[in-house]
Amino acid sequence: xxxxxxxxxxxxxxxxxxxxxxxxxxxxxxxxxxxxxxxxxxxxxxxxxxxxxxxxxxxxxxxxxxxxxxxxxxxxxxxxxxxxxxxxxxxxxxxxxxxxxxxxxxxxxxxxxxxxxxxxxxxxxxxxxxxxxxxxxxxxxxxxxxxxxxxxxxxxxxxxxxxxxxxxxxxxxxxxxxxxxxxxxxxxxxxxxxxxxxxxxxxxxxxxxxxxxxxxxxxxxxxxxxxxxxxxxxxxxxxxxxxxxxxxxxxxxxxxxxxxxxxxxxxxxxxxxxxxxxxx
Length: 280
Fold this sequence. Notes:
The protein has helices at residues 103-110, 128-142, 148-166, 181-189, 197-204, 208-219, 223-240, 245-251, 257-268, 272-279, and strands spanning 2-8, 15-22, 30-37, 41-44, 49-56, 58-63, 66-71, 75-78, 84-88, 94-101, 114-115, 124-125, 170-171. With 280 residues, it is α+β, with helices and mostly antiparallel strands. The chain has 2 domains: 2-170, Sandwich (Jelly Rolls); 174-280, Orthogonal Bundle (Arc Repressor Mutant, subunit A), CATH 1.10.10.60. It has a 7-stranded antiparallel beta sheet with strand order 1-2-3-10-5-8-12. Strands 4-9-6-7 form a 4-stranded antiparallel beta sheet, with no helix packed on it. β1 (2-8) and β2 form a beta hairpin. α2 (128-142) packs antiparallel against α3 and α4 (181-189) crosses α5 (197-204). The longest helix is centred in the middle third of the chain and has 19 residues, at 148-166.
């Protein structure tokens, strides 16, 4: 959903520019939005957490700790019910992406690894790591072909980083790498089947974030990346047995042929059709 408003304030002033894009998300309680605007938002609050990244331009806003400024690359954050406003610096257009998260979503993502209230203490931060997590989450949320487990990973990483670096709650997750043998067996046995981080974490007897860390330490990959490479291997086997690319895509667990083709080219270097032509 998109809205565009262009209205001159006065003959001597620049026209008002306000474009807002609200995207449909398959994750309940998670709403991605993007803005390009020189609009001055009055003081207001939201019922959700908000975390986003300034893409271009800069803005000034009032917060509970006073007036703050955010420039391109900075992370902007707000708690549910927290009063704030927002105005472009020098009236210029600024652009930002933001993700609104229901409090229940943040509580769910944090429950196994934090003690204390899920409250953010900084309205603005220069934090390239968190900005990267939020950008990847935004991109996966608006990508209809993105795997559900990737959305889960991106959401979990974003919330953990947000609360660990800019929150009140105490991070309690241990640094010990858990055994992921059973999680690996689950993926290897049927990579075409749908799975979730919660299922893999339960098999390993750890939290979902501990699972992510254990997976990376043991394989150098996230669970999603490992799952995709196993699906590509399965697709190669199916193509070698004479399956068409469309048949191989669905049998290997990809959402469609184009989804498989992108993964296949990244890992194999050629399209499934060319691969099939050389071996069948």
